[in-house]
Amino acid sequence: MATEVSDLLPQIDRSALPAHVAIIMDGNGRWARKRGLPRVAGHRAGINAVREVVEGSAELGIPVLTLYAFSVENWKRPRSEVTTLMQLLKEYLNKELENIHRNNIRFRTIGRTDELDASVQAELDKGIAKTSRNSGMIFNVALNYGGRAEIVDAVNRLLRNGGKAAADNGGITEEHFAQYLYTAGQPDPDLLIRTSGELRVSNFLLWQIAYAEIWVTDTLWPDFEKRHLYEAIIAYQKRERRYGGLEPAQMTIEH
Length: 255
Ligand code: IPE
Ligand code: IPE
Ligand code: MG
Hints:
44% of the residues lie in helices and 13% in strands. It is of the alpha/beta class. The longest helix is centred in the middle third of the chain and has 24 residues, at 79-102. Bound molecules: 3-methylbut-3-enyl trihydrogen diphosphate (2 copies) and magnesium ion.
């Protein structure tokens, strides 16, 4: 099978790109262990992969990219690992913001970022403000993110914003509810990628991935390159999405 970028790119149908690609970046620790390095070396190496997918997605014209960087459950890790992850996030932004901006990308975050260290929040706010008037790809970084936390946050916001009145008025719709999620106004992921082989969603975008196509690779996150993104999109474009219905040919057959 062709695996070179130059072989893969022409196989992508630019008129049928996923509107939103969401990635569970996993396997940094295993990447480091394989090399006899501390786990944080894996996180550092993972930054290259972030650069690859941000660039690769923007070049293709993917409208929304969401990367899962830190879950609400990741606080259970050793304090030193959490501190390093936050430090790396700041470093990444410091180094890449100019490039992100130049590529017309809109940087955003999803998650309970108000619980992050003030210095991290300041860096994030800078990135969001600088790129807010751009018109290209939306790049969401999920930080202190949990799918259940997001739904609970949405319910609480709804209650504060006239939820009772809405309930008395016949209840709310799915569309209305989605406006209270962190991803309000954005399309749901069409493609969910997870690296390093784990077959679970780990509390990521629970509402939004209802009909996402899932693509899992054994490649560890620090080894993920543009060609892996292209492979995922090519595989996605070969899938038949039915949304609970039937394939078109079956619809015309009398039973
Ligand atoms: C993903 O890599 C990065 C984060 C969750 C922050 P891991 O750190 O989970 O790597 P493994 O799963 O231990 O290999
Ligand atoms: C999911 O990876 C969270 C992120 C990628 C940020 P984890 O490594 O935390 O997930 P589990 O623990 O294997 O489910
Ligand atoms: Mg992991």
